[in-house]
Amino acid sequence: MKSNMFYNLFLSCLKTIKSLQRAVVLPIGLFFLLSIPVKALSEERCTLLFYSCESNINNFKMLKMEFDTYLSRYGEYEFQPFYDRKTFEKQLSEQNHCLVLLSSWHYRNIFKPFQINASLVGTRNGEKLQTRVLVARKSCPDLQAACQGLATASSRLHTLSILKGLAKEDSIKILTVPKDIDALMSVGFGMAKSALTNKNSFKKLKDLNPVLYREMKVIAEGNQSHLLVLAVSNDKSKKHKNLQKIIKAMPSDPEGLKLIRMLGMDGWQDVNKKDLIMLETKDSGSKLLITRSVNK
Amino acid sequence: MKFMRNIFLLLIIVLLPGITLGDEHKNILLINSDSSVARYKTAQDAFINTVAHQVFRANISDSKQNETTVIEMLSGGSFDVVYCIGAKAYMTAQQNSVDTEIIFSSTINWMRLPETDRAYGVSNEFHPAMQVMLFRYIFPDVKKVGILYSKRYNQQWFNKTVKDARKAGIDIVGQPMSKKMNAPGALQKLLPKIDALWLISDPVVISDAACVLELLEQCDLKKIPVFAYDDIYAKYGAVLVISVDTPTIGQQAAGIAEELLSGRKPDNRVQYPAGSHIILNLKKVKEYGLKYSNDALGSVNSIIE
Q: Which residues have CB under 8 Å from B31's CB, separation 6+?
């Protein structure tokens, strides 16, 4: 009788152990099985994240396709552009294996919390710095009037930060247009009172339509700021370094050059100490100062 | 005393939001001719995301019942502004509302719409000088641009374009057409004098798809680039397509609505579109041996290779 009882007890213990095995061991096993390939995959793919709040680059579908094709020549690399800042930053915080291409203003705001370091700065015609300007028709009386219909290719947040202190936020009416040239033409053809753009684009207008150019004036000008910045996270894997090399070499390859031209640049320069100070100093290059310059 | 004070406080809590928001609480009726049309939907979304007031939406393509409801809403006059996307929406609003201000967008050739003092809008066609500037921006060497046009639909536009283009350093060479003429025949006369053909929206010139294909084929044979206004032409060999950027149009309409709701009148009753969408056919550019501006590549939305 006793032995029967022990036997039954032994059997029920065995059942409990088996069910415990099912409940604990199986999920653990499955977790390992699933997590290993995911980890391996994430290690394989190295991504270049892109978001620019200083220019309204909206040809993402084409950019993604072209960059992915170009990068696939060299291995498991991917280009991921973002429409909005929040999603970009969320992705950046979640993904270790990535390089980041972003505006200098944005870099200044996030390099500390996201632990990224500027590595390269973009150049255009040998220049790595740009100057923001607010342009209006010569008949525009003042800055307040200019801000009541401001066309820009920059994000709303960036535009407001640039105009901080110059005009009341609730009096600024922003029209976000796809390109700098659209912003300038909007002023020229009456869709906006002013355009927030950069000196280069305004100079370009001089070649394209000198009559229109002469009818316009710069009413405010900012300090110089960098073009796009390529930043890297602290996690420096071999793939990471390779992708950085590939991106740096793009200007010397006709296909690569065509791609970075789509981002408004034609070359790269290594970040030096002076650049780093400028890139990491709060508010440098972001605000505009009222000017009285008149175009000749 | 305490009871009275509590009643007073309650009244303030209940009534204050109404008093302070009295000026802000304005209603907009958005009528979409057909929200299944992608560009209409895009304009609608951009408008709603930009405007700070409450927007009631109605899609009149859904059912006859929807249209009847919209007509009832319009006759009720409970909306401060009506935003109409597409010509059908505009016509509905124009015929069924008495004094509400109407904003229109996304209609082809707005000048054919019945005009009223309370109508404002965003044109679906660019300022001609804006297009000419973009031609020059991308193809700096193009100096003579040909246009086939009918006097009936585009004489005024053509005259203005010639003047504007001259300011931007481009000569427009025009070939007027009548219904009796055929477009390919007219193009034959034009081709020896031009660096590029600018295809415009003109029902006399573009009578059917076969005619368009023949125009594009003739230009292709002579390696003359075609600049067009709608994305569809990119598929058939147009070198450059400059079309309007629809989200910008929605934003512009929202800007007009805000101005009207704040009691101001917009500077221009009808605005030109402020944003452009550019398609460049690099395959054809290379085939024709055209020189293009590398700087302008950053402004191109789509490249065909």
A: B58, B60, B70, B82, B83, B84, B85, B89, B92, B93
Q: Is the ipTM here above 0.90?
A: no
- Report all structural domains of chain A as residue ranges with CATH numbers, in order of start: 43-127+227-280 (3.40.190.180), 129-226+284-290 (3.40.190.10)
Give the span between the Cα atoms of A234 and A253, in whole angstroms: 28
Delimiting residues of CATH 3.40.50.2300 domain(s) in chain B: 18-124+247-275, 128-244+277-304
| Spatial separation of the C-alpha atoms in residues B82 and B63, rounded to whole Å | 20
Please tell me the CATH code under which domain B128-244+277-304 is placed: 3.40.50.2300
The predicted-structure confidence for B238-270, as pLDDT tens digits, reads as follows 999 999 999 999 999 999 999 999 999 998 999
Domain B18-124+247-275 sits in CATH 3.20.20.300 = no
Name chain B contacts of A263, Cβ cutoff 8 Å.
298
Q: How many angstroms separate the CA atoms of A54 and A155, rounded?
A: 6
B304: nearest CA partner in chain A = A62
Chain B residues inside the 8 Å CB shell of A261 = 294-295, 297-298
CB contact under 8 A, B251 and A176: yes
- Residue pLDDT, tens place only, B33-57: 999 999 999 999 999 999 999 999 9
Q: Does the global pTM surpass 0.90?
A: no
Q: Does A208 touch chain B (CB under 8 A)?
A: yes
CA atoms within 13 A on the CB side of B283: 11
Q: Of the candidates B140, B168, B271, which has its C-beta nearest A191's C-beta?
A: B271
Using a CB-CB cut-off of 8 Å, the residues of chain A touching B251 are: 175-176
